[in-house]
Amino acid sequence: MRKNSGFTILEVMTVLAVIAILSAIAVPNFMGWLPNYRLRSGAEAIRSTLQFTRINAVKQNTTAKVTFNLGADSYTASIVGGPTLKNGQMPAGIDMYFVSFGGGSEVQFDNRGLAIGFNGSVQVRNSQGNTRQISVDLTGNSRIE
Description:
By secondary structure, the chain is α+β, with helices and mostly antiparallel strands. It has a single domain, classed as minor pseudopilin epsh domain (minor pseudopilin epsh fold), CATH 3.55.40. It is 35% helix and 30% strand.
């Protein structure tokens, strides 16, 4: 005699029903979480670029800047009068809607890591209207609010 092995159709249908119920609960929660995750990710990317640019200004004993382009939701870090250090783009669904560094759209760091001239901020928002502000003070420190 041979022994039958495997799953019955009832067992398979029960497992599929449990998976369907769990998916119905998890997917809406995930879809609500994703825009906020992208917002935090975009804000952290800007802050990271600001710190990277500041460090490079000190390391290379020169002036470096980060220029923000609201229309393209992008930013560029570079040495003033020199090469580009880094380019960045906001994640999908995130836009930069306000940039103000003394009325301009760029922040510069001197060879000591200090912000030149003005402190300011960049504001980003997601499709749900949630916002984050990345601020730079005169000492060159940046923070997310």
